[in-house]
Amino acid sequence: MSRADELDLTGPPEPIEPHGTIDPVAGPGGPTSDLRRRAARGTIVNGVFLMALAGLGLVRGFVLARFLTQDDYGIWAILVTSFGTLVFLKEVGVSDKYIQQADLDQETAFQRAFTIELIMTAAVTLVIAVAIPLVAWAYGRWEIVPVGFVGLLAIPALAFQAPLWIWYRRMDYVKQRLLSSADPLVGFVVAVGLAAAGAGYWALVGGLLAGAVATSVLAVVTSPYRLRLNLDGAVVREYLRFSLPLLGASVAGLVVAQGSIVATSATLGVAGAGVVALASTVIQFADRVDAIVTGTLYPAICRVADRTDVLFESFVKSNRLALMWAMPFGVGLALFAEDLVRFGIGERWTDAIPLLQAFGLIAAVNHLGFNWTAYFRARAETRPIAVTSGITTVAFVLITLPLLIFGGLEGFAYGMAAMMLVQLGCRVFYLRRLFEGFRLLPHAVRAVTPVLPGAAAVLVVRALDPGRHSGLEAAGQLALFAGVVLVCTIVAERVLLREALGYLRRTPSAAPAA
Questions:
Q1: pTM score, whole prediction
Q2: What are the residue ranges spanned by the domains of the chain?
Q3: Which band of pLDDT confidence, cut at 50, 70 and 90, is reported for residue 60?
Q4: Rounded distance, CA 33 to CA 374, Å?
């Protein structure tokens, strides 16, 4: 850690030619361009920007819960897990590999990656089109067929969001994030509007389609490169070597997602699946904010992938920054899940309270080392990701599924916690191989310490007044929790926060005279 702290990644900035075909941002092994400042500034500025959008998605889930029934959410859960996970299989590292490459002709490199993305999208679209009536038959819910085919139109649109990769690789996060923000903003307006009009689960599908199309149109219009087909056999083989382990990891994720919904529907009915879908919104929110930090760092990580000491510094500091919000968010949800249901989404969701509490704590702990996969992808070592996903899936089948079947939602919560601990163990194993001297316990203690006083303050207030509190009292307790955690975090992490804010204030180094 001391070596990394002494390293200076700053240097004279390179000129960026937005419309040229020569790489404007050096790839792995190339010169760095004020790398530390750009990565830190992107993480903080664009992280805050996208946290707001991720929060909008979380709010949308709870707002829609006011208008939709548990059956509506159940239908949506079947659609998302049956077909959304198939779309997830398409995300097997094409964009990640494109970020890694360092071709001189970047327009050609993009067109080759875009062509592979189109081929994979076409294949997934065809598979889903065939699967829609089969899934409807398996669940005995034929209303899935028309809704599924309408939602299917969003998948081809996703392929035309590929130009966003260009801005991502150039570390032009502001432009990338502004363009991609059309999806949650448009989706929110359309979904809430349709739900308020009584459209039921069609509101969810309409929001999905509108958001995807809006972002695709903006991405194509603003693309600095022409969108043309360009298929190269050697490039395809290179992408396959990188992506096949990631495909295995995606298949493992598909088994977990499908198994959860199928088993819940079979044992607890569609309404039970709706409860699981709502609670899963918590994990999705946490994962999405994680992806903000990881996504911002990934291009920078690729450029220093052979410098383990620098990777270790960025890994530890990015984790500490993410845990400053993730741990309070998860613990806070566990503390205030009952208030959220009573004063927010409605008491018809009372059955979801234990699962919301459990998922909050699971999300908090799961943030320890959350972005480890980015560091292995940057080094083209994708096999550990596949192995971890396979072991986690085995834990799901042997532990989580039996607990769900025989213990209902409570058993499912325990099973998900066990599965998370198995995944965390695999994560630590590989991190210790990559980073000599990495220890999880000090990492966890540092993250938990600022949260404990806030949680203790709330529990003391509730112990002094154990009765059923009002909405105003719940808001006061939430403010108390947030205030105590904020103060404790500033005290405990003042050095790191000062460093991060310094990157925001610091101006790029001036280029040397020619």
A1: 0.70
A2: 31-505
A3: confident
A4: 21
